[in-house]
Design a protein that fits this description.
single chain, 405 residues, two-stranded antiparallel sheet, disordered C terminus, signal, Beta-lactam-related
Length: 405
């Protein structure tokens, strides 16, 4: 048994909602007397939202709110329900589709340098890759890859993916090494969802292609370009693109999963370790709440992109869901009238959210070390708590939106 599989302890993880609640909710403690009233309300409401996630059956959650003057970390439940380890600010976690904002930012930097245009065709940069079965890369632009209007079918929503990486297939294939071409082929095996520019549908396949465009333009992998252009300049010392390494660095929670079985299951499994080449440019990143807050704040404050490219990124298209979508970034209009910008991400054993105000002065990043939350209200309440000081979204939301793995 390898060091990665030994974490399974030879059995299913016996976690239930009752155990999580019985384990106790750990509050963050009272606010300082010097804390402004608005921040006190935000922290109190966010803590209530975190407790609500554990009450809804999630194993544990940690969240950091960072403002221009202070930072606060709240937690509830457990990072490891067996050892009763708590969540901490040092936790590294798989942030899933938050990767997409880093990928889009890199392409927008390349545009600012005159090395490509958003309206370049996919065919120009990846000749012959998106052709056949109803696809024509000449008619699909880089912009459409980034805002999910390309019509390219999501590889996650295929029988091939479901068989290989969901349910029992996860344990057979989680250490397989996948190339971007392998992943794209799964998506392109299905007909387009619609003609390019004629609809909106979340496509992980499109972002794998976006990563391939970065490599074609620069001669370097998307991960190395992101590291050189974003991670190192911003001092994101805890952010990684692990490639084929199944391990997680430093302190990290157990990743509890129901493995996205096609039918609901009660059993919960340990999915902490797998090779993230399955996710690639659509969801590979490993980070911490602190690093994600620094990234999104810097992005909104114009420290990563020129104003013209940032405006392009924040130009949204309608999605028919409770968020708008720009170029690798989501916009949420909250109950208090504030709109925040960021992304969600879910991969096996991990569900994350990150957002910041338009001025970058208040940022939130949080991670749940479980992947099966079905009702979105407890998830959305974290945003409402952090930015509005309430836990009452204005409207019921039936789902968490796109499956961002």
């Amino acid at each position: 048994m390898s060091k990665y599989t030994s974490r399974m302890r030879g059995r299913l993880v016996a976690l239930t909602a009752a155990l999580a609640v019985a384990g106790g909710v750990l509050a963050a403690g009272p606010a300082s007397a010097a804390t402004p009233a608005g921040e006190t309300a935000s922290r109190t409401a966010t803590q209530q939202a975190l407790d609500g996630l554990v009450a809804a059956g999630m194993p544990g959650v940690g969240a950091e709110i960072r403002t221009s003057a202070s930072s606060w970390f709240g937690k509830s439940g457990y990072a490891d329900t067996y050892t009763k380890q708590r969540r901490t600010t040092a936790d590294h976690f798989r942030a899933g589709s938050i990767t997409k904002t880093f990928v889009a930012t890199t392409l927008l930097q390349l545009e600012s340098e005159g090395r490509l245009r958003l309206d370049d065709s996919v065919e120009r940069w990846l000749p012959g890759v998106v052709q056949g079965n109803g696809y024509d890369g000449n008619k699909i632009s880089v912009r459409q890859l980034l805002n999910h209007t390309s019509g390219i079918h999501d590889m996650v929503s295929t029988e091939e993916w479901d068989t290989a990486m969901n349910g029992s297939g996860f344990y057979r294939h989680r250490y397989d090494v996948m190339t971007p071409q392998d992943i794209v082929a799964i998506g392109l095996s299905q007909k387009p969802d619609f003609e390019p520019g004629k609809g909106w549908s979340y496509s992980n396949t499109g972002f794998v292609l976006a990563g391939m465009v970065i490599e074609k333009v620069t001669g370097n992998s998307y991960a190395s370009e992101i590291d050189r252009r974003i991670v190192k300049p911003l001092g994101l010392t805890e952010t990684r693109f692990p490639g084929t390494d199944p391990a997680l660095p430093g302190t990290h929670p157990v990743g509890y999963s129901k493995l996205f079985f096609s039918t609901p299951v009660k059993e919960i499994y340990d999915a902490t370790y797998y090779r993230p080449s399955w996710s690639g440019a659509t969801g590979e990143i490993v980070s911490t709440s602190g690093d994600l807050n620094r990234f999104y704040a810097a992005l909104m404050q114009g420290r990563v992109l020129p104003a013209a490219q940032l405006n392009e990124m924040l130009t949204t298209v309608p999605t028919g869901q409770h968020f708008g979508y720009g170029l690798g970034i989501m916009s949420r209009a909250l109950s208090c009238g504030t709109t925040v910008w960021g992304h969600d991400g879910v991969v096996w054993g991990s569900l994350s959210g990150a957002a910041t105000t338009r001025d970058g002065n208040t940022a939130l990043a949080f991670n749940i070390n479980g992947d099966w939350l079905q009702q979105s209200a407890p998830f959305e309440n974290v945003f409402e708590g952090a930015f509005c000081g309430t836990t009452a979204p204005t409207a019921a939301r039936a789902s968490l939106g796109p499956v961002n793995r």
